[in-house]
Description:
Blueprint: E1 2-6, H1 13-19, H2 22-29, E2 36-40, E3 56-59, H3 73-85, E4 90-93, H4 95-103, E5 107-110, E6 116-124, E7 127-135, E8 137-141, E9 146-150, E10 159-162, E11 166-169, H5 177-186, H6 194-205, H7 212-224
Parallel strand pairs: 1-2, 1-3, 3-4, 4-11
Antiparallel strand pairs: 5-8, 6-7, 9-10, 10-11
Helix pairs in contact: 3-4
Amino acid sequence: MRIGILQTGQSPDVLRGEAGDYPDMFVALLRDHGLAFQTFNVEAMDFPASVHDCEGWLITGSRHGAYESHPFIAPLEAFIRQAIAEKVPMVGICFGHQIIAQAMGGKVERFPGGWAVGPQTYDFGGDPVVLNAWHRDQVTARPEGAQVIACNDFCENAALVYGDTALTIQAHPEFRDAFVEGLMATRGPGLVPDPLMAEARAKMAAGKGTDSARIAERIAAFFRAKRG
């Protein structure tokens, strides 16, 4: 099954040599699930010709806000709506989670509660799942028809499903602890409160790890699910 990665941002230059760019992280996350990948840098206006060019789509994270005025935002929203209308499965992570919600009529905004950084525990239907986060924007109003499948006290709409066509997650299953540490060192100072970064570092130092592998299984199963 060929999955098109719609790249909406780039990892910091100083981290890319070791961690790779965002598409590389998703390929690493899903490498054991028999999927093939093709990347389209939609941030640079490199869009697929059709929603049927691949059998599924994955939208990456980005430093941009979904509500900002960038040239790629409107055509990406149109692509999302068409893919969902034509039942082509789509997964969105962080910015991808947000832009899908916005495209379908939801609201995304800078969250008054501030940042979520590092390991966070989410309730997936009674099942606690730990994933790394890096965001201060959130989906604050769900689109009609979107169902919440994960939340916590800080993030009400932490994961959503849109029927059997779209699965979106606010956190970053593709981010390893070392990459989050790199983000805190390069993008965090002056942006993310120091106590929040200290708390994230303490959690990562505890060495309990995340449940990214379980979410990778969920994503792969979603792509492969039989649809009418």
